[in-house]
Amino acid sequence: MTKYVVDQSHSHIGFQVKHMMVSKVKGTFEGYSAEVEATNLADLTTANIAFTFDVASINTKSEDRDNHLKSADFFDTEKYPEIKFQSTTITGAGSDFEVTGNLTVKDVTKPVTFEVTYNGKGTNPWGVEVYGFEAETKINREEFGLTWNAALETGGVLVGKDIKINLEFELNPEA
Fold it and tell me: pTM of the entire structure?
């Protein structure tokens, strides 16, 4: 098995959620790490994947909203500073894979499946192998204890239940 590291300057952790029933709030986690081991990274079924998001690094381009998300109303970063994922099963072939694993948010762990696309392999100008992947899943935030909301006078709620999570990873063999 070969270990791979995330090239953070060419990777991205993002999410989006409905806001006021009419638009979307998008954000990122600026701090994260990943551990990937595989016999052949082009065949993702040989991999073991784990990643961790630093919840305090959340960025939605609104300091007030970010502080609210870090509070006990949502992530409670003082008590639960990380979101973690550990793969359990990987299926697929070619460029399309399903990576199922345990996602832990706050003190709740549930299985989720990421739809993963292998974008290919290249060699950078310094002779290092580069592998590209995109992944997406959708979770119900309330199932992970993120239940704060506010009713709107016009009907509906301020924050949608479904969160889309998208990952873009560029991986290199560990030096």
Answer: 0.91
